[in-house]
């Protein structure tokens, strides 16, 4: 089973959503984890907008990247520019991928309704993770071929 760590700054929304989406979409093909460079707790709207699409992430907790230092991951995927700059290196030569996704927690500053911003981030992440999974199938097939 391949291991994936999603990283953002607060581990409140984007990385939490990505973790839940990968678990849901990939089943037992991946072990998904998420962490933040400055964890702040899971936002209630994160849980709510994931429930809207039938994914329960209530048991996920906000964690620091420091909890994972020394662990091996096949992929470390940053979902915000700040996390990309501050994400520590992990052993084992796993692939680093960056997905720049707008922070839904900052929706009020952009004068955008919060729930709408959380849904937009969720849907953006879902599309990107589906693309990641399709690419992974292609690469696995090529490696075996």
List segments where confidence is low: pLDDT < 50 over at least 5 consecutive residues: none
Q: Supply the CATH class.
A: Alpha Beta
- Helicity level: 40-55%
- SS-derived structural category: alpha/beta
What does the main sheet amount to?
4 strands, parallel
| Rg result | 15 Å
CATH architecture designation:
3-Layer(aba) Sandwich
Net shape: globular
Here the CATH topology equals Rossmann fold
The percentage of residues in β strands lies in 15-25%
Oligomer: single chain
Mean pLDDT: 88
H-E order:
EHEHEHEH
Summarize the structure.
The chain has 145 residues and is an alpha/beta fold.
Structure overview:
The chain has one domain: Response regulator (Rossmann fold, 3-Layer(aba) Sandwich). The protein has a 4-stranded parallel sheet with strand order 2-1-3-4. The protein contains 4 helices and 4 strands.
Features:
145 residues, alpha/beta, Rossmann fold, 4 helices, 4 strands, 15% strand, globular
What does the secondary structure layout of this molecule look like, with pairings?
Layout: E1 2-8, H1 14-26, E2 30-36, H2 44-51, E3 75-78, H3 81-86, E4 95-98, H4 114-144
Parallel strand pairs: 1-2, 1-3, 3-4
């Amino acid at each position: 089973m391949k291991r994936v760590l999603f990283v953002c700054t607060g581990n409140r929304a984007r990385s939490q959503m990505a973790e839940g989406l990968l678990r849901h979409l990939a089943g037992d093909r991946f072990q998904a984890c998420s962490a933040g460079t400055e964890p702040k707790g899971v936002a209630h709207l994160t849980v709510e907008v994931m429930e809207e699409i039938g994914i329960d992430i209530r048991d996920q907790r906000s964690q620091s990247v420091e909890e994972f230092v020394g662990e091996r991951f096949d992929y470390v995927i940053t979902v915000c520019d700040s996390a990309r700059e501050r994400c520590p290196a992990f052993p084992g030569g796993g692939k680093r991928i960056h997905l720049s996704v707008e922070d839904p927690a900052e929706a009020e500053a952009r004068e955008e309704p919060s729930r709408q911003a959380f849904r937009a981030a969720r849907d953006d992440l879902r599309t990107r993770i589906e693309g990641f999974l399709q690419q992974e199938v292609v690469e696995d097939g090529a490696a075996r071929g």
